Amino acid sequence: xxxxxxxxxxxxLNAKPHLGHALEKIQADVLARYHRQKGEEVFFLTGTDExxxxxxxxxxxxxxxxxxxxxxxxxEFKDLKKYLNLSTDGxxxxxxxxxxxxxxxxxxxxxxxxxxxxKKKYRGLYCVGHEAFVTEKDxxxxxCVEHQKxxxxxxxxxxxxxxxxxxxxxxxxxKKKELRIxxxxxxxxxxxxxxxxxxxxxxxxxxxxxxxxxxxxxxxEHTMYVWCDALTNYISAIGYxxxxxxxxxxxxxxxxxxxxxxxxxxxxxxxxxxxxGLPLPRQILVHGFINIDGQKMSKTIGxxxxxxxxxxxxxxxxxxYFLLKEIPSGEDGDFSEEKxxxxxxxQLANGLGNFSARVLGLASKFEKLEGDFKLIDKAxxxxxxxxxxxxxxxxxxxxxxxxxxVIDELISFGDRYVNENEVWKETxxxxxxxxxxxxxxxxxxxxxxxxxxxxxxxxxKSIQWIDEKTLTVKKGEVLFPRLN
RNA sequence: CGCGGGGUGGGGGAAGGGUUACCCUGGGAGCCCCAUAAGCUCUCGGAGCAGGUUCGAGUCCUGUCCCCGCAACCA
Length: 484
Prior knowledge:
Blueprint (H helix, E strand, L loop, with lengths): L2 E6 L2 E2 L6 H19 L3 E9 L3 H10 L3 H13 L1 H5 L5 E4 L7 H13 L3 E11 L4 E3 L4 E2 L2 E2 L7 E10 L5 H9 L4 E3 L1 H12 L5 E2 L1 E3 L8 E2 L2 E6 L1 H6 L1 H4 L9 H4 L4 E5 L3 H15 L6 E5 L2 E3 L2 E2 L10 H8 L1 H11 L6 E3 L1 H27 L5 E2 L7 H19 L3 H22 L9 H18 L4 H10 E5 L2 E4 L11
Parallel strand pairs: 1-3, 1-15, 2-3, 3-4, 10-16, 15-16, 17-19
Antiparallel strand pairs: 5-6, 5-9, 7-8, 9-11, 12-14, 13-14, 17-18, 20-22, 21-22
Helix pairs in contact: 2-3, 6-7, 12-13, 13-16, 14-16, 14-17, 15-16, 15-17, 16-17, 17-18
The structure holds one RNA strand.
């Protein structure tokens, strides 16, 4: 049995989950469920990134001890599993000293042994207000925009990782598709960046500035910076640094991330893996951002949407459906409640829900349906097999929205089939047709399972097989009640 | 300034040199009544602007206007 290891980015704990987090998790969940359905052994990982100055500050603002703060927030991210109906197998937290830290320390040592960690002096503009370095763009007339203070030039010594050494190798692996990056525009983007040559990256911060994190082995004056700390979660979670289980799962078959962190995952992370002598992930799938009513989601605008609220209001499957179908997998998309309602009533209530009710209603007129469910209409058989093929290929290309669209098309085909055959007339004589319809609905449910697990299950429960040639049907509840 | 993406019927999206530009939604007409006042058929309606390449261009090129991202060591 082949394995399929899929990860999402770990979420940074400076705020609670928003709709964008939900999108990524749901996309990953579809792939995880799909591969499970194919009979593969799947491990689906999510988690949280809990270190760094921003977390420290957010905790302070909340008036909580840092660990307490992250514990509480991490719960909210964990809860997404329940609300969004995610089939995750693991959840890793970077503050987890038992499961995560050993992997981080082991990897750091590996990089040291490879001769890729070195100390270097760094000069930068330090803003006292920020308690951090600032860059030119934070300044206006030589002063920090936020604090109206002139930054000082400060020099400090940090550990660096020799990423430059792996620049060429990473580029080649990507070009050879050993490390596949989808969609292609993202691959082009990262290749262009790599062509220019990757620079070494800073791997630590002085502990006095960053007390919340993992200390550099043998040098408590320094704390690891995010790269080695956070990226390592993908292997620490499956045992790296603790046991040999990681060899079963690594390399990841798919790592789903947002477009904002492409560089880290397609450049720094592969560099670290190469240095440590570990295989690279097979593919990186990059999603876009969700706009709300055409506007960027932002705290200042105040349009940040809470996925949990939406799920409570509309249910997990409708929200999943919208995000999967209406947001193109690798691109930016738009969410608005108005648009959501349109899709809900058009596609879910009128489409899938109504079709299901139609077919189950027609079929339930028979006490028992007997017949040869293998011997179906050529056109129906063809439609189903084409649908299956397209789903397979679309999911392989990280085009989830198109996979959903093709299932919708099958439903639409079914609706046409009902009309064209005037199935409601002389029901007895139309038994063959109804059997075909059941086959369509049954297959649609199976196709839908990774996308809308709850709905698919409801449909499947309505069709009760007695044996290969006999079934009874009971009309279930309304799948998608009308919104008003 | 630079780099990247984009401007498609009233609204939202898809396709990416080749006959009548696809889907959802909206307007109009008809069919049907099994179903969640759902379904089916027909119909209305479209490519920012200006050029160019080509037998043929939403699709390639140039210019122009507009929109949106990114600018990796963001400490």
